[in-house]
Amino acid sequence: MFSFCTDPDTLSDLAWMACYLTTGKHLNFYYAFGTVLVLLAITAPTALAFGFAGASAARSRVLPLSLLGKGYIAIVRGVPDIAFFLFFVIALDQGLEYLKHQWVCPDWDQPIRQGNDFLVCQAAKVPLGTSPQWVHKTYSFFVAVFTFAIVFGAFAANVLYGAMRAVPRAQLETAEAYGMTHRQTFWRITVPQMWVYALPGLSNLWMVLIKSTPLLFLLGVEDIVYWARELGGTKTPRFTDYPHGDWRMWYFLVLLVFYLAFTRVSEVVLDRVMARLTLGQATTGGDAQRKAKA
Amino acid sequence: MSCTQTIMDYGLRSLGYGERLLPRTDFTLCQQFTLIGSGLIWNIYFGALALIAGFFLATALALGKGARPAWIRKPSEWFIFVFRGSPLFIQFFFAYFLFLSLKGVSPIFDPFSSAWLGALVVLFFNTAAYSAEIFHGALKSIPRGDVEAADAYGMSGWPRFRRIIWPTMLRLAWPGYTNEAIFLFHATTLVFFSGFPAQQQKGDALYYASYFADKTFNPFVPYPILAFYFVLLTLAITGIFGLINRRLNRHLPPEQRRKIRLRPNLIR
Amino acid sequence: MNKLILTTAALALTASMGMAQTVRMGTEGAYPPYNFLNDKGEVDGFERELGDELCKRAELTCEWVTTDWDGIIPNLVSGNYDTIIAGMSITAERDEVIDFTQNYIPPASSAYVGASADIDVATAVISAQAATIQAGHVAESGATLLEFATPEETVASVRNGEADAVFADKDYLVPIVEESGGALMFVGEDVQLGGGVGMGLRESDTELRDKFDAAIQSMKDDGTLNTLITKWFGEGAATF
Fold this sequence. Notes:
Chain A is mostly helical. Chain A is built from 10 helices and 2 strands; from the N terminus they run ααααββαααααα. The longest helix of chain A is centred in the first third of the chain and has 36 residues, at about 25-60. The mean pLDDT of chain A is about 85. Chain C is built from 9 helices and 13 strands. Chain C has a 5-stranded mixed beta sheet with strand order 5-1-6-13-7.
């Protein structure tokens, strides 16, 4: 990075550190923080959409649809996310390639499964074997987003399902009295009101989501924990210009601070929203607010 | 080899009984089901003990967080914040480092670097922090009328807590707490995956599942088996917690029971 | 719009049939000197240099991908990359599922490294990386096996006294023992495991395998492979 970094052996401690912390590998590490934040920013709304779809399906009066929704919630919530990540991504990838294969290579005459191998024509590869590296990275990033969204969508569906049922019955009766159809009642009465009830559950879910990002490496995304482990490990002088002992402790300490800070920020924001909702409620929490004001 | 024989040989393999060597060729479905099921013993062990022990610590922490004096409130707040705010993965890493260095201090700490105790301690603290937050939320949502009624009966201090506040808190917190229990059992799969070393190939369900995935080079059999076991486990947890929930709310008329269950703050 | 899609599809088809086929090389990036990430964050090491040379000789364009050791074979057979070049020993079990080129490193020794010389490797606590042939060997030997997820942790466990010795590829351990300043040493006898290190490919990919096979053969014939082995593994390493 810096011009004086050409021969690290001769540097003073401070300059050595400056050079060490700006190696290409470290830049990758810093870059990974961005990746994690972007992933969270995209995953959260996607998971919410999945959750909304799941909850609406589970509530549906059409039996197959309701079974599908309930099955999705029950099964995905029942499986540890880590186990899900270990085989789902490969399955998803193969499924995509299979569909694309049917579409772009209709006259392919060889079997797709040959023993253990999964073979589709070259043009059906997702992404194409010839694509540059960044396409592969972007692809695995979005596969990760999708997988996270499916897992957390199931939890969100559970929360929203409860929240939809928590909307007071009297509200729905009023809507019916006004002659609204089922669909109208759902979109105009239930959906706008349920968020109040869903917020605590959803904010908890957000906290859990933040903390599951170390599993990203299983999905082929090089995340901060991967780089921390890689950078912190003992380095012998033969393979690096910056040899050091086992520094994993310090790297993980940085991660700890990052996660705690991120949680804290989320907490403050969510607490503000919650405080507004508790205002005036006949609970001990609402009481405390009143007393504090008096 | 018949399946019963396999179950005899490997049913308790995760605890070190039975056949010493894991199967290495000609893997059968029966072997996979047996060994992964055997590993599940560890998941249940970690989950159940951490949950039970964590329950008591969580109650104390929740009260601590709600307490007036800062010397009680601050430590509880920080404990909850640190354990809720960091990934379990990182907690395992630091705990393992800490336990290793404590070994030098006194031989009392020797067993802590093994998973059966060290990981249990981490999971115990972790679930205590999460549950404490749920309980704390429930404490804040206790209907004012309940506390006023207790005051009217002249209750205060311990009797008021024991007979009014604590049961109501549990009732309110129960749905969220059920979810925490499910999350905790899922989290037990991280113990050998990225925390503590597995000794003599005695590991949990995920350890054996990845063993088979590695040996058969086919992830599509062992991981779904693992998923199957965990769906069953989750159903069992939901069932048991549902029974307790019914007992907690047994004095309420049926329609109100349902209402309590859907109280807003409590859905995780 | 429709036409546009068709053209891109056609382009993709011709590109994939063209001469310059891109071969994706899967490696772990955490096993020096075989493969590791250098200060720039790129794959480096013996296999990087070897792989690039092989690709040049076989007239292929190669790209490097890092992946977790646990998923390295499933990802290969499902087509996420085309070769495994990650210090993988050729074993009968692996050979049933994937194909190997001829070995580019002769059957190498695995060795025990401990903190003191008087360790009995048959009864001691031995650490090894989970899901390696070394872990399998220790499990059979009757010693107490301690499995870690990464090679780094297996060595760390000997330094901090959790394990009496670590069992791994000797080539991996040599630089570690040399740099330890006498704290770590080889103990017990070396053990021969596996049939050398080779490149792993899908069984259906015979054409690509033949190309790499020929390239490895040509490197063996003109002696460049031996030079490369000596460069990365030191004078004492076994050559062809």
